[in-house]
Amino acid sequence: MKEKSFIQQFGWPRIIIALFLVALLIATPAANLKFDSSLANVFSRFGMFSILTLSMIPMIQAGCGLNFGLPVGVIAGILGGVTSIEFGFKGMAGIFMAVILAVIFATIFGFLYGLLLNKIKGDEMLIATYVGYSFVAFMSIMWLVLPYKNPVSVLSYGGKGLSQQIPVSDYWMTKVVNPDGTSAFIGIVSKFLSIKISSGFTLMTGMFLFFAVMAFLVWAFFKTKLGSAITAVGSNPEYAKAAGINIDKMRIIAVIMSTIIASIGILIYQQSYGYIQLYMAPQTFTFQTVAAILIGGASVNKASILNVIIGTFLFQGILTLTPIVINGIIGVDVSEVIRIIVTNGMIVYALTRRTK
């Protein structure tokens, strides 16, 4: 009975994905890959995407559905990062300044985004998708006309307009010399209190600690009176209205909160990745975060921290290992096909099984 209860709670899709992930890890030697390096890549990807996935919770809890308008928060974070680099802030001070600026931009964008979603209740996910696409397209124009001058950021041949990718190695990363004499750059947040477990596996503790703090703040927020009101709005709007809760206000607060968390999450991703990606790049994060939280067990109106942890680890683990393991074994590049099947397949599966 206990086994049956576990299967019902965890769900067959997540069990199958978890078993597939374990099988990929076991198969790494057959693909001429190191087990510890492969596992390190999975943990690294989890740290990079976990906060972006966490940003889904407030909007889901408020009844606004899955945040397909994630690029709004991502662009706020990019603006904060680019502006911090423009003024020459480096190290932890640079990350801190980028976060502060990102929160300011995200608050403004989130407020306007929330006002829009309040006008189209019931169709939030549909409209949010178009908001994401249109805002990314609009900012693709703005990146060319905004008055940034830092040589690291602007296009070298014109001296005006921002580059497709802006390196952050001199601002948010630190240089590490490997035992074999080679060197690499590691994000300063990622490297904080890092633990070297083996020659191929260094646990980037900083990203996990940052995620833990953010997750705790989100959990604690939803234990407050305001957080409970937001949850009530998402669970039963009629009851919330009868209780005197301002539904539109609660929804706007949730959208702002989601946008702020997404803006911080993209900064953690960028300091680990090594580049700030502009133009159409923000759109690529949407389906990965949506798929991750759905795989973790969230529905369109209920999500938890546990859903974020499970979903991000499973989804990013599959996306990280599947291409390199299968390519190594069969010698055929099917990475993009697998990514499309996993991402869109799990979204379709979850959205066709809405739960209250």
From TrEMBL:
Transmembrane segment boundaries: 12-31, 43-61, 68-89, 95-115, 127-146, 201-222, 252-270, 276-298, 305-330, 336-352
Domain of life: Bacteria
GO molecular function: transmembrane transporter activity
Keywords, ordered alphabetically: Cell membrane, Membrane, Transmembrane, Transmembrane helix
Record keyword Transmembrane present: yes
InterPro entries: ABC_transp_permease
Any one Pfam family match given in the protein's UniProt record, by short name: BPD_transp_2
GO cellular component, one term: plasma membrane
Predominant subcellular localization, coarse grouping: membrane
Protein name: ABC transporter permease
Organism taxonomic ancestry: Bacteria, Bacillati, Bacillota, Clostridia, Peptostreptococcales
